[in-house]
Amino acid sequence: MNSGIASPENRRLFGRLAFVAVTMGAPPFINASWAQNASGESQSLETVTVTSQAILTQGDTPPPAYAGGQVAAGGRIGVLGEQDTMDVPFNVISYTRDLIENQQSDTLGDVLQNDASVTVGRGFGNYSESFKVRGFDLYGDDISYGGLYGVLPRQLINTSMMGRVELFKGSSAFANGVPAGGTGVGGAVNIEPKRATDEPITRVGTGYRSDSYGETQLDVGRRFGAQNEYGVRASVNRGRGDTAIDDESRKNTSAIVGLDYRGDRARASLDVGHQKSVIDGGRLNVNLTNYTGDSVPSVPDADSNYTPSWNRASLETNFAMLRGEYDFSDAWTGYAAIGGNRTHERSLAGSPSVINDDGDATVSQLDTAYQSETFASQVGLRGQLDTGPVSHQLNLGYSSVYFRKDVAFDGIFTGAPTNIYDPADVPVREPNYPSGDLSDPTTTGRTYNNGVSLSDTLGFFDDRVLLTLGGRYQEIEVNNYDGNTGARDSRFSESRVTPVYGIVYKPTAAISLYANHIEALQQGESAPAKIGGALASNAGEILGIVRSKQDEIGAKFDYGKLGGGISLFQIEQPQVSIQDNTAGYNGEQRNRGIELSGYGVPLDGVRVLASATFMDPELRNTTNGENDGNDAPGVPTYRYVLGGEWDIPHMDRLTATGRIIRTGSQYVDDANNLQVDPWNRLDLGFRYTMPLNEASLIWRAGVDNVTDEDYWESAATTGNQTLVQGEPRTLKLSATVEF
Question: Cα–Cα distances in Å, from 672 out to 96, 540, 554, 590, 635?
Fold first, then answer.
């Protein structure tokens, strides 16, 4: 037994079990079974006082799943490691592997649809998923893997490589560092790798989704060694076929292998992965930059495809990550990680630029070759100590991200006529605007991000009050190069310090009240030549580091079977405007909002996952004050998500599933002339688990957008005013055998 509790994890577990035993009146059991010597004679034991203390630093051990199994009881808080959500002054929620599989989610965007604080869209002119968290952009380049940026594919992320999806809401430069893509002001997303469990895993599955897309998958996990210290987890997914959108087809391949070791004091893991997606005839966004109508154009049929048939994209990424932890003592742990990826993309794309409310449009053409390499690292030390009645959780960490991209393109920007309601057969044309060599792209950008963070979480009154104080020193260097000559066009380098202050107060064991002030950093934009009618004399110059600020207060509750919370937040992000003929960060977008969430098991056989967000996204200090007080574009004023499962009575192993999404209106432009209508989406499904000798066969059937609603899902202004159309009704079927 002494050797079995030698590790810090087992010591903490043993302490908690002892505390439970004492509080439940277990001393008689202890006296009867433990208080004997080797000869069986009874011995008197000294009185032992057992105390329980919240463990704030969890390292790389994920918190367990919460009641109902759809979410976890915490998540990764950057340099602070995996934490119980009740112990930190931040808003974090983690979606489990069970939820991902039961909803038959295909990409990261499918998973994040479960949270009302997130809107899902697409990048302009490509097939990447993009997100807004609390109303601010988060791109695929800036999604972390096991807490490390710069590892995962940047455009689409297949769910087959996901153990969990952890959503950190709010500015996160202190906790997570600054990603190379420069987004994430409103929140961050971390994907935890799959790991082998103590019980062997063998899953073989096949699936189908509208219109004729089929897939197969294999997921295997095993542990080896005298104490199961060695683990292997491998997942492979392959799919191809037509989607529910007319004339759109996809081929997807993903494979991931995860190795891990967990010893008494040392833990290590290695993850190696590959993902490739080929998209033919994919539907892209609708551009409204030259639109002359007075209102947003009517939505075409949900399954219509108004982009040219020659649209094609090939997206391929190989990646790897190595992590390690070592317990120098029961109180101090060191950790380190390195990782990176190499990406190759080639696309031929054209999307309609709508001219009027009759749907008349023009289509340009762009052939792009993109390559990139990313390398990221982190190293740090976590520890615990006491100074009198005050406990301390100390964290010192360093992280860095290096990013290089090579880009070449050739296009023709004279638009060919079409109509989004009656698309023309637009032919491929001879391009006339080359930049670089498509067969060997030139380096066009390099970014270096380095940062050091230090924090202390002080515990008072037996850790009923937890005060987190910290700061991060960050250096950012951005280099831009000419795509034809390779000569450096511009260079920017700057450093900043961002603080974090947070407090948690636990009036009862089931309630946590919290508040925080935290900041984000991101690389600045290049100065535009023109905004509205104002011209900038410094066009093309990099405008510096952008610092965004967040203030938040909230409450969380955990009653064993039901959890959730409420939060009120304000985030201020500088925006570019032109004052005195000079572009700079004079303007501001200020988002104020309220978030509500609830999850768990309110009744036997019923599981819920619900959230709501109400937002006031205001523009301030705009160019010449012309848009002051307007709503920031692309941010819905409200959003509700209500999902759940119901184990149908008297029908063993049959479960009904459902989800309702309601998204409020949002604007396409800063002037608030074009407004997207609110929309609803209903998803329904069933799941049946069939015993099969020593195995189980799980049948899943679902329909997304049951009513086949036609709707503009989101609006974006990333260089252009664009609309993203919602997906049509999609049938999803799958069968999985678990041995």
Answer: 38, 27, 31, 16, 12
Q: How many of the other CB atoms lie within 10 Å of CB of 180?
A: 26
Q: How far apart are CA 476 and CA 450, in angstroms?
A: 7
Q: Does domain 74-738 have CATH number 2.40.170.20?
A: yes
pLDDT the model gives residue 532:
65
Q: Is the dihedral of CA 236, 238, 244, 247 positive or negative?
A: positive
Low-confidence ranges of the chain (pLDDT < 70): 1-60, 124-125, 529-530, 532-533, 540, 717-720
Cα torsion at 9, 13, 18, 23 (round to 10°)? 140
What is the C-alpha separation between 118 and 665, in angstroms, rounded? 15
What are the residue boundaries of the structural domains of the chain, listed by start?
A: 1-52, 74-738
Q: Among 545, 630, 539, which residue's Cα sits nearest to residue 583?
A: 539
| Integer Cα distance of 671 and 654 in angstroms | 51
Distance separating alpha carbons of residues 478 and 474, to the nearest angstrom: 13
b/e 667-692 (16+ beta carbons within 10 angstroms → b): bbbbeeebbbeebebebebebbbeee
Distance CA 15, CA 7 (A): 12
CA triple 423-730-281, angle to 5 deg: 35
| Tens of pLDDT, residues 117-145 | 999 988 766 788 989 999 998 988 899 99
> Diameter of the chain by CA atoms?
96
Strand partners, 695: 692
Cα separation of the two ends of the chain: 33
125 CB-contact burial (10 Å; exposed 0-12 / middle 13-18 / buried 19+): buried
- CB neighbours (10 Å) of residue 698? 19
SS3 sequence of 229-272: CEEEEEEEEEEEEEECCCCCEEEEEEEEEEEEEECCCEEEEEEE
Q: Which helix (H) or strand (E) holds 11?
A: helix 8-23
The single-letter DSSP state of residue 432 is: -
How many angstroms separate the CA atoms of 101 and 96, rounded?
9
Is the bond preceding residue 137 a cis peptide, omega within 30 degrees?
A: no
Q: Which of 612, 621, 708, 598 is nearest to 663 (CA)?
A: 612
Query: How far is Cα 596 from Cα 132, in angstroms, rounded to an integer?
Result: 17
pLDDT of residue 716: 75
Strand partners, 348: 312, 367
Q: Strand 545-558 vs strand 511-523: parallel, antiparallel, or unpaired?
A: antiparallel
CA separation for the pair 41, 73 (Å, rounded): 44
